[in-house]
Amino acid sequence: MSSGLKLAIFDVDGTLVDSQAHILRSMAAAFDSVGREMPARGAVLELVGLSLPLVIARLCPDLSDTLREGMVATYKDTFVATRVADGAATAPLYPGIAETLDRLARVEPLLLGVATGKSRRGLTHVLDQHGLSRRFVTQQVADDHPSKPHPAMLEAALRDTGCDPADAVMIGDTVFDLEMAQAAGIPAIAVGWGYHPLADLQRLSPRAMVQDTGDLAATILDVLGVSDD
Length: 229
What we know:
The protein is an alpha/beta fold. The protein contains ten helices and six strands. It has helices at residues 20-32, 41-45, 52-59, 65-86, 97-105, 120-129, 152-161, 175-184, 198-202, 216-224; strands at residues 6-10, 110-115, 138-140, 168-172, 188-191, 208-210. It has a six-stranded parallel sheet, with helices on both faces. The two termini are 26 Å apart. Keywords: Hydrolase. InterPro entries: HAD-like_hydrolase_sf, HAD-like_sf, HAD-SF_hydro_IA, HAD_2, HAD_sf, PGP-like_dom2. One of its GO terms (molecular function) is hydrolase activity.
């Protein structure tokens, strides 16, 4: 039996925050640690959303496990150091996202969650920096689950909230987000301001596509069949 609750689950990087400057700087340091030049920007950003060890493995399949583990450690160390130096400016909220979350938070019986390839430490920092630490009732991270597009994150979010798949929606900017939603039996909304081309997202037939953050809240409410009137 349905709980009557609705759940909107957000990806973070490329959906809520624009963290590409931080990601690219950290990845450049990781490649420098093994004497290699970082691949083109697009090759890195197209893998955002996967867990970091899987990203490194895809970018450097010929390296030993030991060298790849060292790259992961360097990336994480650089990410933290950059974050300390630059603060929230490295991963700003996309314009309109704060207002979107404020609007959704006032809607009953709607709950908000996140499912991200970030570590717990990384997610906590981003949410704290933007005053969002209490906004999301379920927070699923790469530390606790297989990498997207495995559905484990979404399945855990459903268990946390007691929601049925039909009463939830996944919002993301990558094919990994949409594939994860499909695997969990959850409808998806693709956003066009992130890191994957819209054409790639369209091929996965999301329930809706949004290209302007100003339209996101209304689209989420429409997909979930709830109103904020």
